Amino acid sequence: MSAASSIVREQGVGALTVADVLNRAKLGTRAFYRHFDSKDQLVQAVFLEMARVEVRRLRRKLARASNPVEAVAAWIDGRLDLAFDASVRSDLRNLSLEAQSQMFAAPEVVGPAYRELLSPLLQQLELGKRQGIFAKIDPPTDAELLHGAVWACVEQQWASGNCDRAKARDAVLSFCLGGLGAPEHMIAAVIRHR
């Protein structure tokens, strides 16, 4: 796994071959096929592991939240880190772009990682719905919509490099939390808190 992750980080999914993984890991073919049935299964495992690492980072941010609105804001902040925080973006940018490009080409390869990445957000949306904070939402659909809004900001920053994080954050929070039906005073509180 480590060898495959390194190759994907350095050269992208297209450069990943079983032979290169075996060479880098100093393993034989038999050892590889004990763990994976195919290259696609290996790529799926690489993306899933990447998502799990990212989810652990996001959960640390969400742990400081005292309610679902703050938790959704923390998840949004965490995902915006991909574009605006140099310590995060350097490692995850290439893998995130690779995963995004595979989403349409091979959704079965990236789907488990995508669901993993959305899981902390989905949990907070479900909690907020149960608590009556988010009115009339469909948590699975809304998790995907929120991810799309955040991803648009991330891509815009990657493309231009001149976005203002505070403005992007405020716009995404206002749009997303407003769309979820969060109370105005709670939205204002998370926008003020940076």
Automatic annotation (TrEMBL):
Keywords: DNA-binding, Transcription, Transcription regulation. The keyword Transcription applies. Residues 17-36 bind DNA. One of its GO terms (molecular function) is transcription cis-regulatory region binding. Residues 1-54 form the HTH tetR-type domain. Transmembrane segments: none annotated. The keyword Transcription regulation applies. It holds the Pfam family TetR_N. PROSITE patterns: HTH_TETR_1, HTH_TETR_2. This is TetR family transcriptional regulator. It comes from Mycobacterium heckeshornense. The lineage of its organism: Bacteria, Bacillati, Actinomycetota, Actinomycetes, Mycobacteriales.
